[in-house]
Amino acid sequence: MSAISGVNSAALLILQQTNSTSSIKDDKSASDNLVAVANGVGEKIGMSAQPGQAQSRISEAMFSVDNVNINKMKLELIERAGQKLGFDKSDFDSEADFARQMRKQVITMHASGADQKIAEIEKELGLDKLGISLLDVVSSARNPDLDDAVTQALKEREGAKNKEEAEKAEKERDALPPSSLAPDEIGLYGAANN
User: Fold this and answer.
1) Is 11 among the domain residues?
2) N or C end of the chain: smaller count of CB under 10 Å?
3) What total number of domains does the chain contain?
4) What integer pLDDT is reported at residue 183 of this predicted model?
């Protein structure tokens, strides 16, 4: 009997503490509280503002596993192109100098008839599969934030890749035998053992 009454006493104490904290009075009127809650700035205990649509999209973009950072891929491609042309980005004072020297090198190579060497570099970097040229990449280096041919090619490739992966995963799910849920010995639902 004493164990049960001890549990009841503990439960009663918890409920009393909860009620005492939730009954804190403010000098605000009920309409002020309603407006505050409607605007997401309610300051009552136990209230928290829900993220808005913009905040949810930002969070999804930052933390989603499916997120592909095209701009990062573009910058890596530009840096790899510079390395193939014999330039290291860290050797330059600014990215503008790096881009200028790369562009100058590609134009000089075209003028001297080194189109075979340019084609080899494009193939090594996978530019032929993207449908863009080395000159497109080095031109993109001048302003990597632009939505240019390189960005569009990367977006198209990643969109196709994500679509293929989604289709493959869906086919794998469809190939699995249908599972049914059933309660086990203690009443928890899980996959039925056939």
Assistant:
1) no
2) N
3) 1
4) 77
